[in-house]
Amino acid sequence: MRALADLYVQQFKTTLASTLQYRASLVIWMIAHILEPLVYLIVWSTVSNTNGGSVGDITTRGFAAYYIVLMLVNHVTYTWIMFEYEYRVREGSLSFALLKPVHPIHSDIADNVSSKLITLPMMLAAAAGLALIFRPSASPALWSLAAAVPALVLAFLIRFLVEWTLAQSAFWTTRVSAINQTYFVPLLFLSGQIAPLSLFPVPIQVLASVLPFRWMIGFPVELLTGQLSPLQGLIGLAAQAAWLALSIVLVRIVWRAGVRIYSAVGA
Amino acid sequence: MMNYLRLLGVFFRVSVLDELAYRVNFFVQLFQSFLELATALAGLAVIFSFTATLGGWRPDEVLALVGVYFLVGGMIGLVIQPGMEDLISSVRDGSLDFLLTKPEDAQLLVSVHRVEIWKLIDVALGLGVLVTAIIRLGEKVGAGQAAYFAVMVTAGAAIIYSFWLILATLSFWFVRVENILEIFQSMYEAGRWPVSLYPGWLRFALTFIVPVAFATTVPAEALTGRLTGGTLLSGVVLAVVLLAVSRLFWQVGLRQYSGTSA
After folding, report:
1. In chain A, which residues have their Cβ closer than 8 Å to the Cβ of B186?
2. Residue B260 — very low, low, confident or very high, per pLDDT cuts 50/70/90?
3. Is residue A54 included in any domain, yes or no?
4. Interface touch B32/A181, C-beta < 8 Å
5. Residue A267 belongs to some domain of the structure
6. Are B34 and B175 in contact (CB under 8 A)?
7. A227: how many CB neighbours lie within 10 A of its CB?
8. Taking the model in full, what pTM does it have?
């Protein structure tokens, strides 16, 4: 445990140093992360205004709140591991990670968290700017905001583990981009990015609640914008806990199978 | 002009020969392009299930816009982007030297020397969507609109090409330019919706800072009879001016270049 803590601290330091060196790629991610929810915010505001100020039970300013919060939640939970892992396997740099006496996932988590420590203040500034322009309104209860804290941590862990598992596909195939793109489709629709899930027909809402995607992004957003009842909040946290357990099992199985067939260049 | 087309033909043939060795790529690319289109259409379906028009655009008109988005995006991915990415990396590692020794205009060679043939799938899909949208719009699309559309797509492509050339030319002075090009990609996605939806500052950015609007919204406006004479004229003028400016800038940049060992 001590050793693991040391590892995290060291990884924080190296990532901070290297991220500050390569600021450009951070800016690129941030622009994409701001622009995409912004476009949907604008599209839904337009729809809402043509319909007399609301869609379903969400008002124009409610959409603004939803998408500004979604922008932050998506940024907190996103990973780039699927792109990086393919490179590691292809170039063989994974071999060095295998020599270390700890599971490589730990340095990836630490790396992810520390780079977000740098970008989060800028994303918060962007959110504040958008809030001035679009004047969001939401009235979440105190319990809802409190529940959003564990929900956000769980969402980050579930998304990280699922995407880390998916990244392992690089052991079996070089066509990772097709797999990634296939994954992004349900992520886009069922996590609440294209539209708040409450606007979808009931069968799709049920599907979204069974699959992991809503628990990675949509659920914390719904809590933070006060869309859920206390019971729904509790059920959601339980579903997140279940998906966390499941994804830990998944990571272990896939990692063991993958590393067995991995053979680096020159090995 | 003939020379340009002949060279493009040659490079295209070479790319085909190159890629035929990796035929599975065709199916993978086909799968990815269809998936992207299906995602875009499903997104439209969700939004139009709540409204009849989006900022005054009817579903078939937005469908036409999606067609233009794929068509122009495919053209960018086919020649413009691969050529400019190569330019940036060849300035950095000095391999631009080899290209400069060839007895052809260097800008021409840089612009067409790499063709990403699988992007033709996007071009074809875009055309398919566009034709579907035109058929569904029916009589509203006359010969006049079609002509304006052709003019605006050409102007849009010229604007985007010049824009990329100017950015790529910056690599003669700065090392890491490809990052700016990445930003273009994420801005381009905003062009899937009519820019008239966006608030003024964003519309301005998407029109004049990163000229996405001229590549997607404006041609779609031409097709759906929304185009004003002013926009038509400014699009054509901007295309001509940018082509000239990017040519000039390229020549200044080239003078700055001095090989690896020089």
Report:
1. 28, 31-32, 35-36
2. low
3. yes
4. yes
5. no
6. no
7. 23
8. 0.89
